[in-house]
Amino acid sequence: MDAKIHLTRKKDLLDRTITKGISMQEWNNFVDNDPEMRMDNTTTVTLPNGTSYTYKSPGTAVWLNRPPGETKYRLIKFDYVDGAIVVDNPDKRTIEKARHIAFKLNTRLFKETKRWTEEMLVEQPVIEPRFQFSGLWSPMKKWLPQLRYFFQHFAFATPRNNEKLKDH
Predict the structure, then answer these.
(1) What is the rounded CA–CA span in Å between residue 156 and residue 168?
(2) CA 104 to CA 122: how far, in whole Å?
(3) CA 113 to CA 4: how far, in whole Å?
(4) CA 39 to CA 107: how far, in whole Å?
(5) In the chain, which residues have pLDDT < 70?
(6) What is the pLDDT of residues 36-82, one digit of tens each?
(7) How far apart are CA 91 and CA 95, in angstroms?
(8) CA–CA distance, 121 with 109 (Å, rounded to integer)
């Protein structure tokens, strides 16, 4: 599959307006704080005759992707290009990592193929409230019928205003 993933702050991948992209400093800080990534600053391409050519590419990072159950790492390149991050031919795990990066850097994620371009969903944080009212209701379910029974039988059976109960 010949596809690319773009992480950018543009509203549309083909948008040519000037927007504030991902800064090199911001990208370096993210890579330095991520234990699975490292800065490589070089890119290697394979030429049609089979030889490989390496050139300097500032901002190029490598993700040390180790699939579950394997001992070897797969090196996935994340290229920094004009304020955006580009990944070639991503697999499912690479797309998950790109979604994570897009969330952390507050960017959009686009998938580009030869025929079409689409925006992909970025991972949403799951916010667990510290206090839930539903947690209060379950203990109440046990003693609420007992409380109702008490009020029906005992609270209204006591004399009011010094009245004495009549014997029938």
Answers:
(1) 18
(2) 10
(3) 7
(4) 20
(5) 1, 18, 116-140, 153-168
(6) 999 988 888 888 898 988 888 888 999 988 777 778 888 889 999 88
(7) 6
(8) 7
